[in-house]
Amino acid sequence: GFEITIDLREAYLREERERERDRSADGRRTTTTDEEEEEQIVFLGLGLVSVIIWACHTLKAQIDPKSKFQLRLSKLNRTVLLISSLCSEPAILLKAPPPLLHCIASSLLRCSSIITEAGSVYFRVSRVESETLVSVTNEEEEEEDERMELRRHGSETNLCHSLLRRKLHQSPGAQSHCRYDNSVMTFLRKCTRIEIHLLTPQGLEAILDVPLYGRIATLELFRPHVSIVSLMPTSFSLGGETQDFLFIATEGYKFCVLQWDSDSSELTTRAMGDVSDRIGRQTDNGQIGIIDPDCRFIGLHLYDGLFKVVPFDNKGQLKEAYNIRLEELQVLDIKFLYGCAKPTIAVLYQDNKDARHVKTYEVSQKEKDFVEGPWSQNNLDNGADLLIPVPSPLCGVLIIGEETIVYCSANALKAIPIRSSITKAYGRVDVDGSRYLLGDHAGLIHLLVITHEKEKVTGLKIELLGETSIASTISYLDNAVVFIGSSYGDSQLIKLNMQPDANGSYVEIIEQYVNLGPIVDFCVVDLERQGQGQVVTCSGAYKDGSLRIVRNGIGINEQASVELPGIKGIWSLKSSIDDAFDTFLVVSFISETRILAMNIEDELEDTEIEGFLSQVQTLFCHDAVYNQLVQITSNSVRLVSSTTRELRNKWDAPAGFTVNVATANASQVLLATGGGHLVYIEIGDGTLTEVKHAQLEYEVSCLDINPTGDNPNYSQLAAVGMWTDISVRIFVLPDLTLFTKEQLGGEIIPRSVLLCALEGISYLLCALGDGHLLNFQLDTSTGELRDRKKVSLGTQPITLRTFSSKSATHVFAASDRPSVIYSNNKKLIYSNVNLKEVSHMCPFNSGAFPDSLAIAREGELTIGTIDEIQKLHIRTIPIGEHARRICHQEQTRTFAICSLRNQPSAEESEMHFVRLLDDRDFEFLATYPLDAFEYGCSILSCSFTDDKNVYYCVGTSYVLPEENEPTKGRILVFVVEEGKLQLVAEKETKGSVYSLNAFNGKLLAAINQKIQLYKWTLRDDGTRELQSECGHHGHILALYVQTRGDFIVVGDLMKSISLLIYKISCRLLVSVLKHEEGAIEEIARDYNASWMTAVGILDDDTYLGADNCYNLFTVKRHSEAATDEERCRMEVVGEYHIGEFVNRFRHGSLVTRLPDSETSQIPTMIFGTVNGVIGVMASLPQEQYAFLEKLQTSMRKVIKGVGGLSHEQWRSFKNEKRSADARSFLDGDLIESFMDLSRRKMEEISKGMDVQVEELCKRVEELTRLH
């Protein structure tokens, strides 16, 4: 019962005078004076004091639910409530006008993090960035009231935490397209990468994928009217008007201008710079970057109250940037307008009464200030948050709201009502801007039409076209083809049809592009029982939610198999060279050859080709021209009719010689006999003509004449591997003229060579007897072999064969670790196959087994189809709802997930479930609906002491509208019986169960601020229940928990990482019975303030954390320290900026760990991020780490980042308080890119390290085997 009066009027007036002075300034960066600093500090202090005093009183008073400004306060006894604006209680008289309240809140939020204690009140005020999807079309910033919606989709129920994890739904996916040489090229921004695709009749063809050392905030295309030169030590000319340029701004306030170089197929940097300011509060609604349509200015809204201008002069130079004071603080969107004599912007903003308006300003280059624009529009739709500038001749702007769309210009105002929705993206269809595609939060695509008579706008029309993935960006490409970029599901390439289909939709999906983000949770399992881990993720959101099964390598799906031990070779043959399907399968053994063919029951059975020798080993077989077949044995070459199966001709080896190795194509045969004799034979209609014979100085070990030119039946080159001198040679056919000789080095002979063309590039592949593979780029005109690279694919000899999949040529490398070699973006990729010890392979395309492979392995012949050729194979299980938590139970072969379904038309907009799925076909087996307002927060499969059953445990939270923090939750214990979920026990909790862990036969739960341990006890009636044993207080919010033995690692909302231990003490009871009673104590903590997003345990003393500033860090406990103080403090030993919001760490690996491999001893951890990234972390031995750190340093000097961005700065640890160089972490992506470098750059790095290139390749290859 007391009354406090605080007069802040004088501070408010001083702030206003400062604003007036700033409005007249030119906005250039200046040094803050002592008086200005003192004024800021005093004003902030006044605000804090007022809040502290007011809070002490308000803790006992009623809270005004209509308040706007929200702060989080917590008493030391952990009573949590949400309090509101500074004048909601009449008992506190703030003698100041209402705008002062906004100033106090703004002042508080200027500080990124303030922690204060006052009496019994503990609170923290933190500025929380709300990142937005910014694309070339500058997608809208999500409004404030949607943040509570996001809290229910993919983040914790705690308000502060949900705001931080809002990035879960902000997975970047900006996209734009331009024309170059009459081709449509599409640029996609994926957070820290840029993908470039070419629009072809077959769809989008990927041509480049490059990393960018920064998180991309803005992606804009523009075409300058004159050449552009940046104000940098070295100036760059940007050409002229022939092509578009790409402007990129990063969240770290760097920018660059990029140009596409078609000759080198690379992005080149033409300008770069830094647009950061020393002071200023970052915008809540995310950065906005825009370019004047006439290329006079680049505009950036980076800080509240400031608009940064980067001007072009009349010579096309980028001049020095400057700031202009912007009165509107809560800016929702800014766009440059078309058709204005002076550069003009439209600003959509919200005032302090929550009303939304649009103002226009002209940018005065001379005054470096704003001049009032030609028009303004007040009191718009409360949901308006997107501006669409309309090009000439119509000009003006479209204002997109939740319930209305308004067209505004100096001469016209038109509006239409729409069905209530939140527009997420737009794309312009016509050059004149009369038609637009709009994508909303439900995945619906609408067509908005501006009706007009000449240049006069007469109205607006809108029509529903159909449904797609929830769009984050829309780009109309050409001929009614549209790209839908989605951060919530798979991106799509769609076609808009003139007529609707049976469902009334005009949308036809042409192609889908996998997007794993946002990954909310995942588990690592071995579903196929082959010792290789697979990741099953909870991906997507809303209706685009799904489960994704991700595994490394390429799968062979077995269709048929037969036991045939001792296979020495297999080949497929046709009845006619023009047949679509193969007829025969030739299987060679040490002393015989068997011919298999498909019968009418689609079974393989023995048959005969009369012209073939069946009592000898076949060295090679092939289809030949003129409907013939060729068989090569150790003594002869036989030409057989494929229709009559009779022998037509043969060539016999000279007396005293046998054929050692041979190869053939449809019209040529090349073989080698003992003594180094090389014989070239051409195939005619019933003829075998020996064209050339050559005597070589050494024995031949392998041959190939696979055609790589335009004629698929004839090769102009032959590749020959040699014994003794360990070389590979290229001969010109038909003369057998030596073209090129390449010494392979070492003592291991080549066992298989292959000429092939992948993505239009000719290669020579040479496999050695020890499992290594050398690849060269082959210049077919000069015979030059360049870019020599060596990789290890196994430990046994490799056999190389080509095959086709989806009209593309690939190479199968058969060995003890079989692999598929393919080309992607002009780079060779090696992907392992999920089989063991394949000795031979050939394509086998039959009616019963289309597009299959015949594979000889482990004493059997297998016929199977091959997965899509890619390094990671991803299988999608659409579930139509948002899966938030997942776990696997091996004993019952099931998955359990916590999911939510949106029901816009129902009274309760969300329903939450626990669902049971079969782990083989992923069909739903059972569903347990949760209560109204009950969320599934955690899930676990575990067993308890003295109980043989395995249970699913689910932790929940009741998120009630009237509560600011959950005060109630449940722990549900299920058992799987006959494919159903049976609830066997439940335990009510006093808060949200954020985490569950199995702990020494008991259950460990994180409930709000407490860590609680439960034991599984038996009741008198024979049923079981969870009984509380002990707990630990002292956390703000215990969100993430991991355990190891008796140790418990806790990731707190704000207080970084703490380490707890469970101890058992014995008490002697009165009954002289000993009763065990445990306790949980804190033994160490990291005293840095970090807002955690995930934690992991690396070893007994080292722990891993991820924070909301996209950093990773490791802390170490000094268990052997001399003093208690040192033992209680965990030291930060590693820091690294990963640039991704990590949601989960899990132990495991995506590759098969072979016992004989050095890498099998290296522990790995997998992590999943909001943007759909799956990453691997490996704990390296010190020697290997030191070597790779030196390699990384050398590579930084040679490889320059796109846009001139520094890799070293990018990977430096940074948060709101400090930055520091990365330590104890290496960038595996950068190091592995060594294998993609040219030979010249490899040698440059090799010279700097004083290590041979081959040794560097070997060490990097070892690293690649970890994933």
TrEMBL record:
Q: Name one GO biological process term.
A: red, far-red light phototransduction
Give compartment(s). Nucleus
Using the record's annotation, list all stretches that form the RSE1/DDB1/CPSF1 first beta-propeller domain: 190-512
Sequence ranges of Basic and acidic residues compositional bias: 17-32
RSE1/DDB1/CPSF1 second beta-propeller domain: from which residue to which, for each copy? 557-866
The answer, when asked if Amino-acid biosynthesis is one of the entry's keywords, is no
Entry keyword annotation includes Metal-binding:
no
Q: Which GO terms describe its cellular component?
A: nucleus
Q: Which Pfam families match?
A: Beta-prop_RSE1_1st, Beta-prop_RSE1_2nd, CPSF_A
RSE1/DDB1/CPSF1 C-terminal domain residues are: 913-1236
Q: Which UniProt keywords are present, listed alphabetically?
A: DNA damage, DNA repair, Nucleus, Phytochrome signaling pathway
Question: Which GO MF terms does the UniProt record name?
Answer: nucleic acid binding
InterPro entries for this protein: Beta-prop_RSE1/DDB1/CPSF1_1st, Beta-prop_RSE1/DDB1/CPSF1_2nd, Quinoprotein_ADH-like_sf, RSE1/DDB1/CFT1, RSE1/DDB1/CPSF1_C, WD40/YVTN_repeat-like_dom_sf
Name the segments for region: Disordered.
17-36
Q: Which family is this sequence assigned to?
A: Belongs to the DDB1 family.
- Report the protein name in the record: DNA damage-binding protein 1
**Species of the source:** Brassica oleracea var. oleracea
